[in-house]
Amino acid sequence: MQPQSRFYVSQRLEMHYAVWGDETKPPLILIHGTRDHARSWDRVAEALVDRYCVYAPDLRGHGDSAWALGGNYSIIDYALDIHALGEAIGRAPYTVVGHSLGGGVALQYAGTFPEKVERLVTIEGLGGMGWGRERRPAHVRMRDWVESMHRLEGRTLHAYPTIDAATERMVGANRHLTPELARHLTEHGVRKMDDGYTWKFDNYTHAGSPFEFNMEDARDLWNQIRCPMLIIWGKESWGNRPGAMDFSAFHDYRSVEVANAGHWVHHDQFGVFMEHVNAFLNG
What is the pTM of this model? Predict the structure, then answer.
């Protein structure tokens, strides 16, 4: 099944999203993670399209969406883009599923506009926020950020001579991927250039932010979420473990850990992942 390609505008950027299925069915939004793209959700979309119309955006600086002028990529910008997508679709409330950065963006969106989210699934969406990390002084954070932005100015896009070479890099990043899935993710994740193939994401998405994770603000946003939530983890993930986190700001939630899965749970253990998601959505 091939999705439709559509575009909308957020903060003067032309943003791309893919659409699967019948728009008379309930709407579901899938939000990918850092340096990923909308078509990484193909299997999930095809598994849910019998019940939902599925919308999967390319976040700014990713896939076929525009790159941000100046290279500013923060979770609040991404959340703004998801709100703009929701307004463009015009079918709230939405069921929202987000992975990694996309899971954090989904929480920001649901906390800011709780009336627009009916159910929420976050996959590895809380692990990279530095919960237990001691906050550094503001002047140190600011200097590090400025220096990282300067380094990115001189960074060029890495070119792979063939799709096969780029696929090898994809496999190297996730040993759980089958050859077929790795090839699919690569084909939709690269752009043809004169000297080969480069990833579609903007190098500036590597940049951090001088404004580190703020638990007080996060708890305030999360406390506004009233819809049912499913929090999914991969047992082999490099992210922080659930036992180190305080979920007391959330209300109606449950958390599950998936064995033999790393950070990309929906790729690594697709069948188990869909069992949990279907049980949650049907519940």
Answer: 0.95
SS3 state at 53? strand
- Which is more confident, 99 or 141? 99
Q: What angle, 0 to 180 degrees and rounded to 10, lies between the N-to-C axes of helices 101-112 and 215-222?
A: 60
Q: 61 with 88: CB under 8 angstroms? A: no
Q: Is 149 helix (H, G, I), strand (E, B) or coil?
A: helix
DSSP 71: -
Q: Which of 115, 116, 92 is nearest to 27 (CA)?
A: 92
Query: Chain centroid to CA 46: how far?
Result: 18
- Whole-number Å distance between alpha carbons of 260 and 125: 18
Q: Is the predicted pLDDT of residue 134 greater than 80, yes or no?
A: no
CB crowding 154-190: b at 16 or more within 10 Å, else e: eeeeeebeeeeebbeebbeeeebbeeebbbbbbebbb
How far is the CA of 61 from the CAs of 80, 98, 104, 152, 204, in angstroms?
14, 17, 17, 14, 8
pLDDT over 70, % of the chain? 95
